[in-house]
């Protein structure tokens, strides 16, 4: 069975090339005819791993291609997910599995509501990759992938493809705690690195602000039925800040490079959840407003 990978960005390339390297059939779905022509004008996708570049001539198409899709890996940003799925929804078979790689929360439920007959599988990934040029990604950080669905269903048979492809993974019956925890870590660290224009480690100088955010995030997590995601949150935030002291957060890098952030699905989702629960979150709301102001001042979208 073929893997259709929508989006040939950092993670799309990382997944598509490893699946293709294992001899599995893969098709890329690109944004439009212009991107397809640009892709076809050169020699496939490249993956750079341990300093070595390998090329893979993976066939590509646009959403308007006719063939049915039984397994779709949605590898675009959260803010592109609904539009991207709308373009291929008519091609999904009635047994289709759709893997959602998006960071944060909110986009997955929105996509799942658009394709109620498909089995949507959420993925929480700690692998790291970035594009060094078009159609080429550097595998920058070993990590892990947790997969699960909202129905607490059994693990799909195609997990064996991931094993064959050397994609580290585990089926997790309830992924929501992990997704909420990752979102909370992101909310406590990333926006502050943007506003203070600093590396993660420099947040040690803003310990009071970090602590207050973690307290509020804990209340929101308890309010939305995720006490497990709240447990030990501040300790883990401090550990991440120390362990990644020399790094710039992904949101910092997006803003520094003039790219749109996924604010709506991270801090925005935490604030929207707090509001829906009537859970007071003044620090989080204030942080969001400061971040929006910062993004607007740089001409970047703030949603
Ligand atoms: P990315 O490098 O920006 O790639 C996104 C790709 O999606 C781009 O190639 C874009 O096409 C494509 N795309 C958008 N709309 C499309 C459409 N309608 N049809 C076809 N292609 C479309 O993003 P990424 O870093 O891979 O991130 C993907 C998701 O994974 C994000 O939610 C991110 O937060 C999450 N994530 C990333 C990493 C990482 O290390 N990169 C780690 C963990 C989680 P164009 O090239 O034409 O613009």
How would you describe this structure to a colleague?
- The protein is 42% helix and 21% strand.
- Strand 3 (45-49) and strand 4 (52-56) form a beta hairpin.
- With 303 residues, the protein is α/β, with parallel strands linked by helices.
- It has an 8-stranded mixed β-sheet, sandwiched between helices. A 4-stranded mixed β-sheet has the order 4-3-10-9, covered by helices on one side.
- The model has no long low-confidence stretch (mean pLDDT 97).
- The two termini are 37 Å apart.
- The longest helix has 20 residues, at 176-195.
- It folds into 2 domains: 3-174, Rossmann fold (3-Layer(aba) Sandwich), CATH 3.40.50; 177-297, N-(1-d-carboxylethyl)-l-norvaline Dehydrogenase, domain 2.
- The protein is globular, with a radius of gyration of 19 Å.
- Bound molecules: NADP nicotinamide-adenine-dinucleotide phosphate.
Features:
2 domains, binds NADP nicotinamide-adenine-dinucleotide phosphate, 42% helix, 12 strands, single chain, eight-stranded mixed sheet, Rossmann fold, globular, alpha/beta, N-(1-d-carboxylethyl)-l-norvaline Dehydrogenase, domain 2, four-stranded mixed sheet, 303 residues
Task: Please provide a brief summary of the model.
The protein has 303 residues and is of the alpha/beta class.
